[in-house]
């Protein structure tokens, strides 16, 4: 089917291969011939790609299996890759000088549009709070597709959809899409993706605290890995717009955003109130990369603005949330506020993945990060299921899982791989591999879920959402290993 329609049937889309083989529907002989005459070359290139990892005796066999086999989801995740018409205007006319983008960025014109589902059971394309984790597979292996996806997300940031919708958790009605905030997703395949975004109806995600921050962090990470200056320049006004939207969540002016007393982030069933380790850490990391990008682009006013925010925010973060061993879950004063969250270092993880996080651009004290990671390993990993199932999302200081929500006592495989990557970045290599191995053994061996890795499971082997996007974050481990190897090779 070279020509496809989504559920709404409003637009016709041409699959990517039609650029090379035509869209008339008679390309099967040409496709077959091309495959039969090129497959040996493809096999050779795959072997050349995989060989350095497969022959590396320092890497455990389970890791090699997980690293390559988790890539199944990029083709099996309801994936679509389509052409963009040459007369398309992805922003609806809002140009860079107005905070928008070029009408048709070259990467979209050349490489098309790419979308994959959050999961085979969660029918939303390019779910952005989850793609934050999964994006490492794209940026490391198919960087042009990651940049294309980012342009599509950026284009939707500057748009508004005033259609009123009822949100299931709060019972409130609000806009389908608010201007200058990152969407939750780019749409439902049963509707018209890219044209109508935010298929997610549980919460009004315009008020979520993590989406804008994850966009800013990915922009700089992508620039760091691709050195694409045009991309950085195009994204800069959009980054400024979403950060300006985010600033309103700093309600007391201390440089640190506050969560709003409900599940207003990717953990959409886990209530968080006031300053929090997860969103607060993402915020400070985003402020840091705003300073870095402003420095690269010689935008002195923005650099000074966010340098001031960073100075106030880091002081507040340490004062409010650091308890001497780790960062408290939040500052609500409730019974779970001092739970140990496995994902509390997510902001620092992205700084390390982006080649910063120390020196001029150090946000979190290194001793605190090491202490937090060791606490997570001791409690969330080794005190959970005898250290054999990865890291539970939330653990109480006394060594029992946090059961205050439906998600706090789950293990999220993609989060665990990100945690393991953070440990590797910080030199805790053995701990990182042990942490991640628990997830692989549980999913691929004990539960028998090969090529359908779920979002989550519990200690009693109850699982949720088979075939999910987030576990692609295992490629963040590979990035951390490569970065570590490069640093060791460069050392005198």
What does this molecule look like?
The chain has 492 residues and is mainly alpha-helical. The chain is built from 16 helices and 13 strands. It has helices spanning 18-21, 28-54, 61-69, 73-76, 106-111, 128-141, 143-157, 211-226, 229-247, 277-296, 300-321, 346-353, 366-381, 413-425, 429-446, 474-490; strands at 3-4, 13-14, 80-82, 113-115, 161-166, 173-177, 259-262, 272-274, 340-341, 394-395, 411-412, 456-457, 463-464. The chain has a three-stranded antiparallel sheet with strand order 11-12-13. Strand 1 and strand 2 form a beta hairpin. The chain starts with a strand and ends with a helix.
Average predicted local confidence, pLDDT: 96
Radius of gyration over C-alpha positions, nearest whole angstrom: 22 Å
Give the biggest beta sheet.
3 strands, antiparallel
Classify the beta-strand content into a percent band. 5-15%
The total beta strand count reads 13
Order of helices and strands: EEHHHHEHEHHEEHHEEHHEHHEEHHEEH
Amount of helix: 40-55%
Q: Could you name the ranges where pLDDT drops below 50 across 5 or more consecutive residues?
A: none
Derived from helix and strand composition plus strand pairing, the structural class reads: mainly alpha
- Lateral arrangement of strands in the main beta sheet: 11-12-13
Number of helices, where a helix is a run of at least 4 consecutive DSSP H or I residues? 16
């Amino acid at each position: 089917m070279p020509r496809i329609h989504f559920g709404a049937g409003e637009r016709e889309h041409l699959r990517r291969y039609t650029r090379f083989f035509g869209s008339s529907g008679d390309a099967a002989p040409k496709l077959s011939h091309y495959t039969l005459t090129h497959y040996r070359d493809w096999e050779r290139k795959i072997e050349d790609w995989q060989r350095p990892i497969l022959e590396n005796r320092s890497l455990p066999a389970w890791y090699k299996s997980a690293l390559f086999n988790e890539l199944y989801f990029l083709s099996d995740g309801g994936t679509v890759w389509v052409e963009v018409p040459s007369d398309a205007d992805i922003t609806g006319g809002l140009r860079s000088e107005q905070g928008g983008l070029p009408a048709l960025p070259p990467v979209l014109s050349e490489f098309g549009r790419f979308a994959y589902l959050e999961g085979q059971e969660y029918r939303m394309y390019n779910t952005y709070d989850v793609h934050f984790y999964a994006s490492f597979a794209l940026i490391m292996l198919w960087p042009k597709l990651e940049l294309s996806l980012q342009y599509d997300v950026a284009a939707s940031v500057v748009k508004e959809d005033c259609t009123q919708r009822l949100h299931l958790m709060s019972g409130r009605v609000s806009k389908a899409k608010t201007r200058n905030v990152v969407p939750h997703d780019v749409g439902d395949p049963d509707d018209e993706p890219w044209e109508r975004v935010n298929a997610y109806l549980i919460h009004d995600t315009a008020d979520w605290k993590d989406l804008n921050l994850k966009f800013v962090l990915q922009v700089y990470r992508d620039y760091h890995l691709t050195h694409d200056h045009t991309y950085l320049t195009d994204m800069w006004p959009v980054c400024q717009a979403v950060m300006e939207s985010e600033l309103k969540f700093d309600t007391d002016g201390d440089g640190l955003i506050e969560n709003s007393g409900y599940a207003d982030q990717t953990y959409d069933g886990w209530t968080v109130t006031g300053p929090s380790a997860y969103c607060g850490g993402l915020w400070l990391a985003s402020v840091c990369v705003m300073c870095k990008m402003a420095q690269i682009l010689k935008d002195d006013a923005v650099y000074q603005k966010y340098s001031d925010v960073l100075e106030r925010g880091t002081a507040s973060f340490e004062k409010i949330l650091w308890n001497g061993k780790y960062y408290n879950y939040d500052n609500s004063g409730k019974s779970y506020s001092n739970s140990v969250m496995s994902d509390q270092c997510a902001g620092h993880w992205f700084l390390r993945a982006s080649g910063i996080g120390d020196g001029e651009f150090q946000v979190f004290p290194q001793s605190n990060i090491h202490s937090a990671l060791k606490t997570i390993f001791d409690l969330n990993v080794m005190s959970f299921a005898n250290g054999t199932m990865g890291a539970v999302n939330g653990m109480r200081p006394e060594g029992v899982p946090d059961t205050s929500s439906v998600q706090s006592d789950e293990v999220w495989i993609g989060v665990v791989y990100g945690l393991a990557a953070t440990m590797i970045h910080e030199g805790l290599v053995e701990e990182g591999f042990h942490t991640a191995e628990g997830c692989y053994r549980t999913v691929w061996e004990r539960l028998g879920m090969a090529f359908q890795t779920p979002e989550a499971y519990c200690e009693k082997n109850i699982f949720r959402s088979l075939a999910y996007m987030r576990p692609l974050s295992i490629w963040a481990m590979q990035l951390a290993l490569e970065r570590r190897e490069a640093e060791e090779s460069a050392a005198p």
